[in-house]
């Protein structure tokens, strides 16, 4: 599903596997990036969807992991083995994945084991910029749902596209959730004034007014 020029939804509970988060593809020309990897069983369908979007999966160089939860991360080893992608994530995500903790990764809720996942590049500051081909992607630390949560955004064709995975939560002590930090993170995302929101489980929201309304709806609920 095309989201914007060079941006596609290639995985989700409907598109690839019921356990998968939404997986997004960013076309940077000579290089491609994935935002998250799904839970693993949908790997072949995600690759097929990349090809259906008119992109060559062998151009995949970067996988941005928005947080450590198993529905976002367990597909990583397949993308590393098949395409040699380099994984970028917050330092806290790398630490939680290294522990293979079934609670902190939410694996226990999916009845899955945590695979061995190596993060190639981490950041611990509030902002981290990546270059994928001709496209710059900005990653922001947005803790709340989990301590390692990040969001990413890019500007293309006069529009700002925000990958704000799992804005909706859920929030649970076993996940390291912090609602007060989450509220601050949501204010940070609102300040971006994104034209398109690519959410972690509920798909695409646009234009800007709908993006803002979606985020504020959760600020009112939680």
The secondary-structure element order is EEEEHEHHEHHEEEEEHEEH
Low-pLDDT windows of residues: none
Globally, the shape reads globular
The name of the CATH topology is Metallo-beta-lactamase, Chain A
- What is the helical fraction, as a range of percent? 25-40%
Q: Which structural category fits the helices and strands?
A: alpha/beta
- The percentage of residues in β strands lies in 25-35%
Q: Determine and state the CATH class.
A: Alpha Beta
Mean pLDDT: 97
Q: How many β-strand runs?
A: 13
CATH architecture field: 4-Layer Sandwich
**Number of folding domains?**
1
CATH superfamily: Ribonuclease Z/Hydroxyacylglutathione hydrolase-like
Could you walk me through the main structural features you see in this protein, from its secondary elements to its overall organization?
It is a single chain. This protein has 222 residues and is α/β, with parallel strands linked by helices. The chain has one domain (2-221): Ribonuclease Z/Hydroxyacylglutathione hydrolase-like (Metallo-beta-lactamase, Chain A), CATH 3.60.15.10. It is 28% helix and 28% strand. The protein is built from seven helices and 13 strands. The chain has helices at 43-52, 70-73, 76-83, 91-99, 107-110, 179-191, 208-221, and strands spanning 2-4, 7-11, 23-27, 32-35, 60-64, 86-90, 121-123, 127-132, 135-141, 150-156, 159-164, 196-199, 204-205. The strands form two sheets. The protein has a seven-stranded mixed sheet. A six-stranded mixed sheet has the order 8-9-10-11-12-13. The longest helix has 14 residues, at 208-221. It is globular. 50% of the residues are buried. The model has no long low-confidence stretch (mean pLDDT 97).
